[in-house]
Write a structure and sequence with these properties.
13 helices, TIM Barrel, 390 residues
């Protein structure tokens, strides 16, 4: 057998429609918008080899696609199992940028490795967990008759609890008031009782440190598990979050909006967070997210993965220090973010009803990511394509 080599890479941008979704007035957060069709873009990557084994991944964003195009030619001819070499070469190439393009290369390389060794990725990582505890992560609050009031958030929390979820996270309104947020935090806790883990993610919408402090005090009273990315510093100021931590009982979960291993470690050393956040799409693929999770473990901290997807199920199955798999973004009046389910030609899903009676999701057992992509559907939605190599 000849040495395994990358022969070509197919990189595509696709555009999909999501029914009954829109964005808030700033255009940054998905919200329930009945009758609307929201267009979203995603990437589709295939890494081909001389042995006919192809690594695949669908996800990521156009900004990451542009970065992938900066180093993809350098991958041609390389051994695809040498992920650390490819990771570090690409990391240096992207040193002037946020390096999100690393994930678009690394995740399909892990998929390729799983197919080469005929094993799911979690087994290659030494993983053992077959069931992952999940939490319901809501869409942002809306004014359309969905999550439009504190009572609506409370009612949906009860629905999720009764389905088997042991955790529930609130994403707030763009046009919030502190009074409404305090009432929402209190109402949800009263509605579900003491047994359900509750979290809140303002997604950096709170306007001031003072607002973050007031919401944190409300979380203290309601015994929330964490407060995530509270205010408009965009989740990057270690100094302010150290100050916020010193004034709250509720743990902070930060680092979704910084990139890579080193900056995550810097945030911990600066005492700016209690939980770390990692994302394989944002933080250098499975390779990069694994480094962050292990660094967190070295500090004695937990690392929570951002959003779902087969890569995160495979990764979380190999982590001791990760508590919840995020099912998002869910809503009482929408079934699922449909396009993301349509890219699969298998039964893989990340919708509200995917959990079992104990609130867990399964880890795919097929080789690599453990999923089969529907390339007919994907290719029908391609709006831009680039090929590297032969």
């Amino acid at each position: 057998m000849s040495e395994l080599r990358i022969t070509s890479i197919d990189a595509k941008i696709c555009e999909f429609e999501i029914p009954d979704f829109g964005t808030d007035k700033n255009g940054t957060s998905l919200i329930y918008t009945p009758g609307n069709k929201k267009k979203v873009k995603s990437c589709a990557i295939q890494i081909h080899t001389n042995e006919g084994i192809t690594g695949e991944f669908v996800g990521g964003e156009p900004v990451a696609f542009a970065q992938l195009c900066m180093f993809a030619n350098d991958m041609i001819g390389k051994d695809p199992t040498q992920r650390e070499l490819i990771y570090n070469n690409a990391k240096r190439c992207l040193r002037k940028f946020d390096r999100m393009g690393l994930g678009l290369a690394d995740i399909p390389l892990w998929d390729l490795a799983g197919k080469l060794y005929q094993a799911p990725i979690y087994q290659l990582l030494g993983g053992w967990r077959k069931k992952l505890p999940a939490y319901a992560s809501t869409l942002s609050g809306d004014r359309c008759g969905g999550l439009d009031s504190p009572q609506a958030f409370a009612d949906f929390a009860v629905q999720c609890r009764d389905m088997g979820y042991t955790g529930y996270k609130i994403h707030i309104w763009d046009d919030y008031s502190l009074r409404e947020l305090r009432e929402t935090i209190s109402s949800v806790r009263v509605a579900v009782g003491d047994e359900m883990h509750l979290m809140i993610d303002p997604a950096c919408k709170l306007r001031t440190f003072s607002d973050a402090l007031e919401i944190g005090w409300a979380c203290d009273e309601a015994k929330f598990l964490w407060l995530e990315d509270p205010y408009l510093d965009n989740g990057t100021s270690t100094t302010s979050h150290k100050m916020l931590r010193s004034r709250l009982k509720t743990p902070l979960l930060q680092t979704e909006h910084i990139r890579g291993l080193e900056e995550h470690v810097n945030f911990v050393v600066a005492e700016g967070t209690d939980f770390l956040r990692a994302d394989a799409e944002y933080d250098g693929g499975i390779t990069g997210a694994l480094k962050i999770a292990h660094a967190a473990e070295g500090f004695g901290l937990d690392c929570e993965l951002h959003c779902g997807g087969p890569a995160h199920r495979q990764l979380m199955a190999s982590l001791r220090n990760s508590n919840f798999y995020e099912i998002g973004l869910v809503h009482p009046k929408t079934k699922e973010i449909g396009w993301s389910m349509d890219v699969y030609a298998c039964d893989y899903r990340d919708s509200l009803d995917v959990i079992d009676e104990n609130g867990n999701v399964d880890v795919p057992e097929g080789p690599g990511l453990g999923v089969v992509y529907d390339w007919d559907f994907i290719n029908r939605n391609v709006i831009h394509a680039v090929k590297f190599g032969n």
